[in-house]
Automatic annotation (TrEMBL):
Belongs to the short-chain dehydrogenases/reductases (SDR) family. CDD domains: SDR_c. PANTHER family: DEHYDROGENASE/REDUCTASE SDR FAMILY MEMBER 7B, DEHYDROGENASE_REDUCTASE SDR FAMILY MEMBER 7B. It comes from Alicyclobacillus tolerans. Keywords: Oxidoreductase. Residues 8-188 form the Ketoreductase domain. This is 3-oxoacyl-[acyl-carrier protein] reductase. The lineage of its organism: Bacteria, Bacillati, Bacillota, Bacilli, Bacillales.
Amino acid sequence: MKMQFKGKVALVTGAGKGIGRAIAHRLAAEGVHLGLLARNETDLQTLSEELTRSYHVKTSFVSADVAQRDQINSAVAKLTQSLGPIDILINNAGMAKFGTVAEMDPDEWEQIVKVNLFGTYYVTRAILPEMMKRNTGNIINISSTAGQKGNATTSAYSASKFAVLGFTESLMQEARKFNIRVTALTPSTVNTEMAKSIGLKIGEEDRMLQPEDVAELIYSILNLPDRAFVNLAGIWTTNPQ
C-alpha cells in the first residue's frame, strides 16, 4: 500500500528558502500539513501564507536554530501541539563555508558541524520517540555528494555530511523494526541562494539541478509502498558544466 499523503503531518527544517521551501510546496500539494522550521521568521511567515492560500493545508512555523538543542525541543513541542504527531521529517537545514584546514577559523569549522550534524540529530531525537510509539514514520536526511568524497577546502562541510550518512545508516538499522523508513539523499550542486553565496559554479541555471527536482525525488521516495524504502539516493544533473 502506498502512502496516503492527505492529512499527514510533515516537519521540514531549513524551510524558508531553496530546497526546504520546494519540499514544503511539493508535500502541501498532496494535502500534507506542514510544520516549518528555520531561523528567518519572515521567510517562514511568507511560506506559511503561500501554502495555506494555495493548498488549503494547515501550517505552523517556529523560528529556531537547529544547532541549539533547547530551541529544537521547544520548537518541536510547539509544532506537534499545533499540528499533531509528525509523520514525515525532512532534515534539510544546513550551512556551508569552504576553506583550508589551516585557514578556516575553528569556530566556523565547528559551527558547520553543529548545524549539519548535530542539527539533524537534535531534530530527529526530538521526534523519534513518538514515531516509535506510533510504530510508523518517515525520516529523510539531506547529505551531499560532498559527504561521499572530500575535496580541498571542504573539510568541515564534507566531515559533517559524511557524518550525516553514518548517522542515517545507524538510525535506519534501529528504526526499521518500528516501521520507520529512514533515507539519506546525496544531491550534487543545486541552484540555490546558499550555493551561490559560497561561490559554487552554477553554470546555466536552467540546466542545473533545481530545488524542485530534489523535492520531486523526496515525494517519489515517500510514495513507495509501505513495505519498501530507499536507504540512500543520489541526484545529479544530466548536464554538468
